[in-house]
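Entry for the shared binder. Reason: the reviewer on the internal report wants the predicted structure included alongside the sequence.
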Amino acid sequence: MGIKGLLKELKDNGFSYKDVDKIFEQKVIQPAEVDIILKWIPALYKEHVGTADIAVRSLMAARTPFDPSLLIDLFDNSDLNSALKVGIGFTLACAKTTDISKWMRRQLLDKEHRDERYTLLEGLFDKGKFATVDEFMDFLRKIFDNYPNDKMLKLFKKYGDKKDMQFLAEKAKTAEPKLAREINKVIEKKKV
């Protein structure tokens, strides 16, 4: 009943879609649509996790900020696997939501490393409510060891200064060879 229920309620409210993929393809989703999608997400996960994942990701097209409490609860407390939580995390990081800055920071700073948490880096600069770029980079240095991945390095490349490149150079000395190579690429590109 999840998929059919979602599509019927959307249609009853003036939003007609053939399937969930068509919702995902929208460039903008209206607030009323967001509310309906959020209402049906738990049922969608029970019926078909792939469809639920698409519905969650469709929320990235929300026209206005929405309350992400349901998504945060699914991210924090559900028994969904890490791959599904990556989709939820990416949506939380990129969609227009109400303020989740404190939650994002706690996830990255205080919680154990998990694959789904690295996706929060995607929206951390915009949604983390850092007062300055220096404050943002200080936060990245604190969490670097838990998230030494390509997204982290892109952030260092984009926002880092000389001090941050020195930090990376120190990290490269003890990093695994592949990570050390990637770190050194960032450092070299920043010299240009």
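Summary line for the report: Residues 31-47 form the longest helix (17 residues).
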